[in-house]
Amino acid sequence: MQEKKTGEYFIIKAKENGVNVIGLTRGKDTRFHHSEKLDEGEVMIAQFTEHTSAVKIRGKATIITSFTQVDTDEE
Questions:
Q1: In a domain, 21, yes or no
Q2: Which residues belong to any copy of the Tryptophan RNA-binding attenuator protein domain (predicted)?
Q3: Measured between alpha carbons, how far is 58 from 61 in angstroms, rounded to an integer?
Q4: What is the distance between the alpha carbons of residues 8 and 25, in angstroms, rounded to a whole number?
Q5: Which residue among 9, 12, 28, 63 sits deepest, i.e. has the most Cβ atoms within 10 Å of its Cβ?
Q6: 2 within some domain
Q7: Alpha-carbon gap, residue 5 to 24, rounded angstroms
Q8: 3: helix, coil or strand?
Q9: 3 lies in some domain
Q10: How many angstroms separate the CA atoms of 60 and 75, rounded?
Q11: What is the pTM of this model?
Q12: What domain count does the chain have?
C-alpha cells in the first residue's frame, strides 16, 4: 500500500555529527515510528504524511520550512 502524502516538505541540515531525527505517529497514541541519524553537513528532506504528525530533532541543526528557518540551541 502506498502512503498518501499529506503535508509540506521541510529540510533538516545537521550542524554536528549525530543529529537524531525522530518521526512521531498520528492518531490516538503518539509513538516513535522512524529515526535517522545525520552527520555534520548532511541534509534530509522530509514530508509530513498521514502517518507522521511531528518530528523531534536532537542535536545542532537548521530546520527550513516554507514558513521560516530555525536553528536548534547551540549551548
A1: yes
A2: 7-73
A3: 8
A4: 16
A5: 12
A6: no
A7: 15
A8: coil
A9: no
A10: 9
A11: 0.79
A12: 1
Q: Name the residue type at position 56.
A: K
Describe the strand order of the beta sheet including 5-14 as a list of residue ranges. 43-49, 5-14, 61-64, 69-71
**CATH number of 62's domain:** 2.60.40.50
| 61 in a structural domain | yes
pLDDT value, residue 2: 61
One pLDDT digit (tens) per residue for the chain, 75 residues: 565 556 789 999 999 999 999 998 877 777 878 899 999 999 999 988 888 888 999 999 999 999 999 999 765
What are 37's three cell numbers? 541519524
Q: CB-hemisphere CA count at 13 Å for 44?
A: 21
- Cell 542535536 sits on residue: 59
